[in-house]
Amino acid sequence: MCEVGEDYRAPAGQPPPRPGREQKCVKCKEGLPVVVIRAGDAFCRDCFKAFYVHKFRAVLGKNRLIFPGEKVLLAWSGGPSSSSMLWQVLEGLSRDSAKRLRFVPGVVYADEGAACGQSPEDRAKTVAEAKLVLQSVGFPWHIVALEEVFSLPPSVLRCSAREPVGTEGAYKAAVDSFLQQQHALGEEQQSLPCPPRPPIRAGPPTAGQTEALSTLFSSVETLTAKEELLRTLRTHLILHVARTHGYSKVMMGDSCTRLAIKLMTSLALGRGAFLAWDTGFSDERHGDVVVVRPMREHTLKEVAFYNRLFAVPSVFTPAVDTKAPEKASIHRLMEAFILRLQAQFPSTVSTVYRTSEKLVKAPRDGCAAGTPGPRCLLCMCVLDVDTADSATAFGAQTSSQLPQTQPPVAQAEAPTVSCCCTGMGGARHCCRTEEDPRARVIEQLCYGCRVNMKDLPSLDPLPPYILAEAQLRSQRAEAEQIQEYLLEDREDEDARPGES
Amino acid sequence: MPAPQCASCRKARAALRRPRSGQALCGTCFCAAFEAEVLHTVVAGRLLPPGAVVAVGASGGKDSTVLAHVLRELAPRLAISLHLVAVDEGIGGYRDAALAAVRRQAARWELPLTVVAYAELFGGWTMDAVARSTAGSGRSRSCCTFCGVLRRRALEEGARRVGATHVVTGHNADDMAETVLMNFLRGDAGRLARGGGLGSPGEGGALPRCRPLQLASQKEVVLYAHFRRLDYFSEECVYAPEAFRGHARELLKLLEAARPSAVLDLVHSAERLALAPAARPPPPGACSRCGALASRALCQACALLDGLNRGRPRLAIGKGRGGLDEEGPPGRRGSQPSGPPASEPIPGF
Lengths: 500, 349
Known about the structure:
The complex is a heterodimer. Chain A is α/β, with parallel strands linked by helices. Chain A contains 18 helices and 8 strands. Chain A has helices spanning 45-63, 80-93, 113-116, 120-137, 168-185, 188-191, 207-219, 223-244, 256-268, 275-279, 300-309, 330-344, 348-357, 391-400, 429-434, 437-442, 447-453, 464-483; strands spanning 33-37, 41-44, 71-76, 104-111, 141-145, 249-251, 282-283, 290-292. In chain A, the strands form 2 sheets. In chain A, strands 5-4-3-6-8-7 form a 6-stranded mixed beta sheet, with helices on both faces. In chain A, strands 1-2 form a two-stranded antiparallel ribbon. In chain A, α2 (80-93) crosses α11, α9 (256-268) crosses α12 (330-344) and α9 packs across α13. Chain B is of the alpha/beta class. Chain B contains 12 helices and 10 strands. Chain B has helices at residues 27-44, 62-78, 95-109, 118-121, 127-135, 143-161, 173-186, 189-194, 218-227, 245-258, 262-271, 300-309; strands at 16-17, 24-25, 53-57, 81-88, 113-117, 166-168, 199-200, 209-210, 285-286, 293-294. Chain B has a 6-stranded mixed beta sheet. A two-stranded antiparallel ribbon of chain B has the order 1-2. A two-stranded antiparallel ribbon of chain B has the order 9-10. Classes of the chains: A alpha/beta, B alpha/beta. At the A-B interface, α9, α12, α13, α14 and α17 of A face α1, α7, α8, α10 and α11 of B. Chain A: Residues 1-22, 187-208 are annotated as: Disordered. Chain A: Keywords: Cytoplasm, tRNA processing. Chain A: This is Cytoplasmic tRNA 2-thiolation protein 2. Chain A: Pathway: tRNA modification; 5-methoxycarbonylmethyl-2-thiouridine-tRNA biosynthesis. Chain A: Plays a central role in 2-thiolation of mcm(5)S(2)U at tRNA wobble positions of tRNA(Lys), tRNA(Glu) and tRNA(Gln). May act by forming a heterodimer with CTU1/ATPBD3 that ligates sulfur from thiocarboxylated URM1 onto the uridine of tRNAs at wobble position.
């Protein structure tokens, strides 16, 4: 493959020898190999397990973000990668004391059956299977239904400040003091895992909520937008669970392969500015809750083999795009493309992954440094839509401008955002005078979320917390606008500028 | 059912729908809108100041034909003068026909034409010779890498010969989108860091270059050429099927079918990529052989030619580059380019 940086090798006289029956594990040179990783490295069962576990712990140890004693929420979808992650945490916590993982885990499982169109019986069956697995794992677990987004508070969308990340010294000091504490408490207390507490649930979702959720998802026109919406709502829900129960970290089980696909998909969706947050090890855009991805160096192939060899339980849950044709959404297309390319050029996934490691969480050079701007309403990244000078602002303008001769459509039902504010963040007053609630929400979104919203003809089915927060933010912005004109020493005037 | 009325002049019947906005327009109005958008790109980005002598990279294909035509229409308004520069890479059966098309265009539009040939500039190396040389290594040929680097050098040289102050090329939005996809798939962090934006201002002795058609979608370029009845050469280069860009192109077509705004979204993403400082290319120094602007000891064109001359064509394509300072056996170092032009190596897009 024309990979940049591919080393020159003299043309080989004959192809490399194929692994024969007599070959031994490349690591210990003794055991019989059971699996071939990468290109031709055959491992025996024990060496493979050691390699796999070592990678998991190395990723956690290298980044030093998880402090001992911290409460960490494991986001479990039932799929192979997150099940593997769960298992690694379970094993890591039960090791002998010197090398033990030292955080306090909890598990959350989100039941998304309503969005995928599953019948209530199927949903109940899946949830029951999930419960079995969770009970056997033994951590405190939470099962939440996606319908609960309809009762989320708008504070979910606000980024709370968090204490600054500790330095290297602070991490070491924390570990040392934790160890001393444990030692003082005595041995017995360490060996027992905490008994499974009763599940914390808000009660089964009401039929009305389920109805509302399926209305929302069936109103979205394309599968791409559906998947993105589902991802957003799921993130908010997990964030809420984490905040309510005091978890400061969330672990997601994205594998290397999935992250490479996610990176290319985000690129195609217009989220190039946020790649480092979307695919990096840690994602601190929410402030107090940090999302980490400890499985990011395990390829899907390794995960699959590990799960099979060591009987890791997982639960199959159909997703929004199950059985969808390949061309149905950008996500499916990218997945099929990358996996096909991987079959032809085996280094594709690792190349994309390595490039993703070089991304930094900063605005591009030349953009104004200093106070970060407003954040996107849905994905909570700093807005990346520039003033009219940007090349794509112009391109987007030409694509969304509808000719003036079309009769003005009813404002609440505007199929596309036809005013010129799509591309330019600056000129907001023309929207304001029309009081178009849709435009008000759109202008608080980043580029990628705006493109997704185009496939949502009406914003009404959205969960109330989103619309409430949008309202609040625009009122606050209006208040700021008139702030300079208010005279402060008038006592008879009602000092409530936000209401109009 | 008769076609709707043109949305702009409302007199003629609409002849097409614009791919991005779905607007129905007649031929004349569409061409006028297209030209207006290119004008806006040039003016807003301050790409071509008045009085500029502009060298248009003309390959005979649809993009450079449309570019030359549009710039010729806009030249009085922008107060620029145009020269066509065509590059002859020496690809038999392909380039000759393309050059014939360029000559016809130059004659029809009365624009001065200069042809620069690889064989003349690079010591007898034509693309066919390069392809033969790289074919021996068994894996897919990387002759497209050579062609890209050397063509930009040749274009720069041609521009200098006509005394140009700016170089323009006909890359459209689809090209930019394919480039960013390709660079990610190949892991080319250096090019990713340099890419995006409307062109390079030109560092050191290099001429500033830009891409006025950068925001136009490929479909619109073809539509424009159709309505203006432009004569262009539409075959694919004989080496194109082996290029990696083909994968990116196929992916882009699929993405566009799933979401029409995919091309613009990719261009938006490319503009906003933030790469670590270590991934960016080091500040440029001077090539030790020809004195041109270079990030390493040798500029990329000299490095590639060096590899070719030593019979190790993949020498400069790879991480190591360690063999570059070796002295090859005396017999091999036959045809060195005498006094290669002092021009900058190519920043890829």
